[in-house]
Every structure is written in structure tokens, then in C-alpha cells.
Specification:
The chain is an all-alpha fold. It folds into two domains: 63 residues, Rna Polymerase Sigma Factor, Chain: A (Orthogonal Bundle), CATH 1.10.1740; 90 residues, Winged helix-like DNA-binding domain superfamily/Winged helix DNA-binding domain (Arc Repressor Mutant, subunit A, Orthogonal Bundle), CATH 1.10.10. It is built from seven helices and no strands. Helix 4 packs across helix 7 and helix 5 packs across helix 6. It is elongated, with a radius of gyration of 21 Å. The N and C termini lie far apart (62 Å).
């Protein structure tokens, strides 16, 4: 079938969904849910010439609803789970042959973990979503149900606090 539920808009929706969730499987699920919702509510579409815009608004609505559900399920309490375990080492190929560098990286990892864990929850969430999960500022704002300027402010403050903690421990400048 072509038209609203065919393949003609799936590519554009998939690209938008991927920009929101940064995961192919989740993006495909988001598009599938979007098309299902559009199918069940096709009588609500007012302008057949603006089908893609209508589908995109549905996609964004489905995305926001998912974010709210995740938030209700206690996502905020699990935000530290994104951090590597304290005991895990920061490894790279060039550290394998240099025990001194490997020890320094392990120590730095523990200090970094402590610095991030010590942040207020609101700062930590923004830092982890943008820095660890790789979400863009807009997706972070949508996921946390806050405005874009608030995301930028929290990120700035979180980075500044982590930097200060690292510098007080002798890392950095």
C-alpha cells in the first residue's frame, strides 16, 4: 500500500526517530508505533498534502510519551547505572604495556566516578545523557521534560563541578 502507511515516509521518519533516540532498534520501534497511531487516527488528519508533517508530529508525541513513561518508572534513580563500575579500569591499547599509566587511569577513573556521583541528580542526569548516552541537547531536554536553556545550564555547571573536583585532586591544570 502506498501513501500514508507505505514506504514513502518511512525513511524520513526513521531518520528523525534516530536523531531522537540514537539507537536503530529504538528508532524502528518508534516509527512503528508512530505509523500504528497514525493508522488508528487517520480521520484526524486535516491536510492530505501535509502528511509528513502530521506523521512527524505524531512521532514526536510518541517519543515524548515514552520519555514520560521512562521517567515514571524511576529512570532518574537509575542514572548512575550508566557510569562504569568503580572497580573497572579505564583501558586503552597504549596503557596495556605501561603499568604506571594503567594505574594512573584507574585512579583517574575512580576520581571521575566520585565526582560525577557527587553531582546533584539534575546535573548528573544531563551530563550522563549528553556525555555517556550521546543524546543531543534537544533530546535530553525532551527526555527530562525541561527546556533547552536549562539543559545547557545544567551541563555547564556539571562540567564545571567535575573539572573543579578533578583539579582539586591534582588532575588537569
Amino acid at each position: 500500500m502506498t501513501g500514508i502507511f507505505g514506504e514513502d515516509h518511512r525513511g524520513a521518519l526513521l531518520r528523525q526517530a534516530y536523531r531522537l533516540v540514537r539507537n536503530v532498534a529504538d528508532a524502528q520501534d518508534l516509527v512503528q508505533d508512530t505509523l500504528l497511531r497514525a493508522y488508528t487516527r487517520q480521520e484526524q488528519q486535516r491536510d492530505p498534502g501535509a502528511t509528513l508533517a502530521w506523521l512527524r508530529s505524531i512521532l514526536y508525541s510518541v517519543f515524548c510519551n515514552r520519555c514520560v513513561r521512562q521517567k515514571r518508572r524511576g529512570w532518574r534513580d537509575q542514572s548512575l547505572d550508566l557510569l562504569p563500575d568503580k572497580s573497572s579500569q579505564l583501558r586503552s591499547d597504549h596503557c596495556a604495556d605501561d603499568p604506571e599509566r594503567a594505574a594512573l587511569n584507574t585512579e583517574l577513573g575512580a576520581v571521575l566516578y566520585t565526582a560525577i556521583a557527587g553531582l546533584p541528580a539534575s546535573y548528573r542526569e544531563c551530563l550522563l545523557l549528553c556525555g555517556v548516552e550521546g543524546l543531543c541537547y534537544n533530546a535530553t531536554a525532551a527526555r527530562l521534560n525541561i527546556t533547552l536553556p536549562v539543559v545547557k545550564s545544567r551541563l555547564h555547571r556539571a562540567r564545571r563541578r567535575v573539572r573543579a573536583t578533578l583539579e582539586s585532586q591534582g588532575y588537569g591544570n
